[in-house]
Each structure stands twice: as C-alpha cells, then as structure tokens.
Design goal:
Helix content: 25-40%
Distance between the termini: 12 Å
Strand content: 15-25%
Strand order of the largest sheet: 9-8-12-10-11
C-alpha cells in the first residue's frame, strides 16, 4: 500500500507541476493585468513631438492661385521608369503611399532654422507641427502675397528604433504627433514569447543626456503614468530576453531549470512507483 500511495503522490505532483507551470507562464506574458476594475486609462504626459536639429519636414503651401503658391514650394521628385522626373506642385501632400526619400523637404539646422522660399529663414526648432503650420501661415499673410494660405506640414525622417526580443526589430517611421509606445511595439510585430514583459527599456536623448525609462508591460500604471508612453524621435526601445532565452546560449543551460525537466522527473517517478506496485501485487 505504501508503494501505491507513492504512485498516487507522484501523479498528484505531476499534475501540480503542470498547473503551476501554466499559471506562471500566463502571468509572465499577459499585458496590463491590473485593469480588471478600471474603466479609463489616461497618460498625463500628452506632449506632442517638438522639432529638433537634423529633423526633416515636408511643407506645402496652397492657395486659390497655383502660380502664387508654387513660389513658396520646393520641387519634389518621384521615381519613374527611365529616370528621375522633377515636378513642382501646390497640391501635393506626403502620405503613406509616398516614400519620404522621394520628396524634397526642409532640414532643421543646428540653430533650429529652415530656409524657406521667399520668406527666408524661419525658426521652427522647438515648435510642434501645428505650431509650425500657424507660424508659416502668419508669415505668408504678413508678406501680403497670399491672403488665404493653406499650409501642410508632415514629418519625413522622424523614427523610433525597437530592438531585442521583438518579431521585427528595426527603425520605424513616426507619422503623427501622438505616437505611443504600443504603436512602436505593434510596428515591430509585438514581443516574442522570449521577451521580458516586465523589463522593457526606453532610452531618450535629451539636452541633459540620455534619459532611461523602465516599463512593466504587465502593469498598466507603469505604462500610462510614464513620460515614455508617447515616444519621440530618436527613442530606442529595448526588450530584454527572458532568463530561459539567455541560457540558450550555453549547452544544456535550460535543462535543469525548465518546467519540462521536472515534469519528466515526476512522470518517471510515477511510472516507477506504479510498476513496483503492480509487481508487488502480482507476487502476493
């Protein structure tokens, strides 16, 4: 009977290990686990992107008279079969179907200025996109050459880099003012199963040096209360590997610590106990 009890104990141990392994895995990979009693989440750092030196923007001026608006627009280029053609347009806008590398834009210089046609140098460094729109509209009206300007400003080379344990690591274009941390992860194809949800790092370059933010994706408050919720140009997001993934670099690094190893041990113990029990019963 003692051997039979050992067999039952081995089976219970096997079941317990399997259940614990499943629960622990779920807790490690599920995002924002603390939202059961929440109905609203809001980030308190709703700051739009501000332009910095070396940023590139695409600016188009439109009005009722295309010839007048053309004076304030750079030519843009688009690839065609047989060569490169040059066009000037007052109705062209940069969209998701147009490669930013095929159009001419303005690069913010170290002093925060751009050299705008007719108007000359305009300081846009430190301004938000819509503030640049209003500034150029104001200067156009003050020049008495356009009464009803429509100004479009789009980002060109702004991007965020996502590295580490994600499906598609790389640099991704920022195409709007509010580009969230989740947007960046979505562009990278989400974390792999081997990425640490509780150990994601965002590095942001500032005038005072690089700022480091730590995020726990299983905790909503950790994400939504962070200045890193909305990414900025030049941000780098790094997803650390799990200890299991890190140990894969060594031979048999995961064997002893893995749940599968202990499940195998428990299964073997159960099989041996049942075998011994059956032999004991037959010999009686």
């Amino acid at each position: 009977m003692n051997l039979l009890n050992h067999g039952k104990f081995g089976f219970i141990l096997l079941l317990w290990v399997a259940l614990c392994s499943s629960c622990n895995t779920q807790k490690k990979i599920v995002y924002i686990q603390d939202t059961e009693n929440m109905t609203k989440l809001k980030n308190t750092y709703e700051e739009n992107i501000t332009l910095k030196p070396e940023d590139q923007v695409f600016i188009i001026v439109s009005c009722r008279d295309p010839q007048i608006s053309a004076m304030f627009n750079l030519p843009y280029y688009t690839n065609r079969i047989g060569g490169v053609e040059s066009f000037t347009s007052s109705n062209y806008t940069l969209n998701s179907y147009t490669s930013a590398s095929n159009v001419m834009g303005y690069t913010v210089d170290p002093d925060g200025n751009i050299d705008f046609p007719v108007l000359g140098k305009i300081k846009i460094g430190g301004l938000k996109r819509l503030e640049v729109v209003e500034l150029i509209k104001q200067k156009l009206i003050e020049s008495s050459q356009i009464k009803d300007p429509v100004v479009t400003v789009e980002y060109m080379n702004l991007g965020v880099s996502v590295l580490g344990e994600v499906v598609r690591p790389g640099r991704f274009r920022i195409d709007r003012d509010h580009y969230s941390f989740f947007d960046a992860l979505g562009m990278a194809g989400d974390l792999t199963i081997n990425g640490q949800r509780k150990n994601v790092t965002l590095i942001r370059h500032t005038d005072d040096g690089d700022q480091v933010y730590k995020l726990d994706l299983t905790n909503a408050q950790s994400i939504y209360s962070s200045p890193a919720f909305y990414v900025q140009q030049g941000d780098v997001i790094y997803v650390a590997p799990t200890s299991k993934r890190a140990r894969e670099s060594s031979v048999n690094g995961n064997t002893v610590r893995s749940a599968g190893f202990w499940v195998s041990i428990a299964s073997a113990m159960t099989s041996v106990a049942v075998l011994v029990t059956n032999l004991t019963i037959r010999n009686k």
